[in-house]
Amino acid sequence: MANRRDWWKEKRFWLVAALFILLLVGTNLASYYYGASGEVLPARSGEEYDLAVPESLDLEWNIFIEVLEKLQKNYLYPPDLPQVIRGAIRGAVEALEDPRSGFYDEQELENFLIQTTGSFGGIGVRIVEVDDEIVVFETIPDSPAASAGIIPGDRICRAGKQDLSGLGVERAAEILRGKKGSSITLSIKRPGREKELSLTLDRDKIEVETVYSSWEEPGLGYIQITNFDSHTGASFTGQLRRLEKKGLQKGLILDLRDNPGGLVEEAVKVAKLIVPEGEITRLVGRGGKVRDIHYSNAPKKDYPIVVLVNEESASAAEILAGALQDRESALLIGGKTYGKATVQHLEDLSGGSALLLTVARYLTPSGKDIDGKGLSPDVKVKMPDLLRYYRYFLPGRLSTGDYGPDVELLQQMLAELGYKTGSKGYFDKATAKALGNFQSAVGLKATGEFDDATWLHLREDFERIARDRDPQLRRAIKLIKQPGRWPDRGEKAG
User: Fold this and answer.
1) Which domain holds residue 457?
2) What is the DSSP letter of 351?
3) How do residues 301-356 score in pLDDT, each as one tens digit?
4) Is residue 315 annotated as a catalytic residue, yes or no?
5) Are residues 415 and 353 in the same domain?
6) Is 52 among the domain residues?
7) Does 432 map to a domain?
8) How far is 223 from 252, CA to CA, in rounded Å?
9) Catalytic residue among 269, 301, 340, 380
10) From the candidates 204, 229, 255, 326, which is the catalytic residue?
11) pTM for this structure?
């Protein structure tokens, strides 16, 4: 079981790492002002910072200069000194042994800002790499890609005259992005179509939505926040108000699962709407000095709130969840959270680079430091691995004789849809028959082989049933209908 779980985690890691919209997992940004100093938590009066190299470090500094000189004079291959110095800078930051601090060159900074600002110039796709090819995993609604009819499963072969095969997802993403109004011609292989498609798109400003709302039933609302970028607070405000105007009497389910965090200020904006009057969080700097305290002036909601969390709910998501839990204004349901309670800010450097530096940590309203510990849910509900990770099943090709975890996942998804498969982890005749039956049911040719078109239909069908079989969501709905009989904190559920 442990090996199986590790495989699920590894599959999820590589997919998340490959997505066009890259997530910096577990990062809290206190604020960010592009083109400004980047200072977020300014030095208080009486605090001074000496930027000169201390005399005690003269030896180390001289050694560093000597190494550069000897590299330049004596190394067999003439070194690229700017690259060497940038490597030294990265090494200096890595020596802090803080995985949340980092140095970004100009291109890395651009990729990072996509996550924090929630917008970029491009065509509006999320892509993954499969068999050295670039495959569309998702299209962003109302984007140039969506308007042009690009769909998940499309393989982007070329952008202009540039062949994308083997370039990797990050380089492909750089090519697909560009200034608003600029054009790009794509050559696309579509599942079930022999000839390549040629599509010319005009890039646009892509706004990545982070807040999604719906009704579970009349009076019972659901809002999911996927991460906290510069638009999250305003988007949440608008969607919550719309739900309240339409009668949010039974309650609200706030889904923070798989939310890696983001901008502290945006999490605070959300908290100021749903956390009752009082403290939300406090930021503590060097020596335990309080740098800032965030408060809410909101009245207590007249409807119950439950919050869904899991092991990937981190940083800014934990600020919000921790405030709601500590103030006893919501129940947390799911699994223990990630446990990331430090705050970073981004400082501009010369040449378009930047330094992401840990500057503070935050405490929950009761004074808890959850860094490395996480928040324990009030009601523990385990999510089955299949429902937890099915979204990270990649397109590709599987057929009779193949074996391994990918085949096993395919079999589990088919079985959940009601199709009986064969030997676990082995693509045998029974599995081919089950897959062929599924293909016939969705209008595909029953080849019994797994391909991109089959992946698309399988994912769509499984998406429809997964929500209905989500035990954490089902438990939240059940509890929110019984606000007078909510369990004591610490209740466990299977």
Assistant:
1) 386-468
2) G
3) 999 999 999 999 999 999 999 999 999 999 999 999 999 999 998 899 988 999 99
4) yes
5) no
6) no
7) yes
8) 8
9) 340
10) 326
11) 0.85
